[in-house]
Design brief:
The protein is of the alpha+beta class. The protein has a single domain, classed as Alpha-Beta Plaits (2-Layer Sandwich). Helix content is 32%, strand content 25%. The protein contains 4 helices and 4 strands. The protein has a 4-stranded antiparallel sheet, with helices on one face.
Length: 121
């Protein structure tokens, strides 16, 4: 049985928090999550659409959310197939989310307001 590659101890996983403005506002969590997954699938296909993320914060009006994208949640196969060598140390999943949300043409319009390595609301 082949051994799995282990992450170097010097390169910790990177969590990135994306603050996203929603237009029109939505308070329906299922519609919001489906739209984000659909944006990823439209841009990258089914395997990348299943990249894990979670909603860390959402305002009451439904106009702004913060999602957490962690590099360690990506499928190892997807990371190997899509990882350019010049992006080592970056959260490639975060870069994919930013591209997919910007290109999304669905009913909810996503605008990335901020990108942080800590949760800021």
């Amino acid at each position: 049985m082949p051994r799995r590659k282990r992450r170097s101890a010097s390169v910790p996983p990177i969590d990135t928090y994306l603050t996203i403005h929603l237009n029109p506002p939505t308070t329906d969590d299922l519609v919001l999550l489906k739209s984000i997954h659909d944006a990823m699938q439209q841009t990258f296909g089914l395997s990348r659409a299943l990249t894990y993320f979670d909603v860390a914060w959402k305002d009451k009006e439904g106009t702004r959310i913060v999602i957490r994208v962690g590099e360690e949640w990506a499928s190892p196969l997807v990371k190997e197939l899509t990882a350019p060598t010049d992006m080592r140390g970056m959260n490639r999943d975060c870069e994919a989310f930013k591209g997919a949300l910007a290109a999304w043409s669905g009913s909810i319009r996503f605008s990335i307001v901020a990108e942080n390595e800590e949760l800021n609301t």
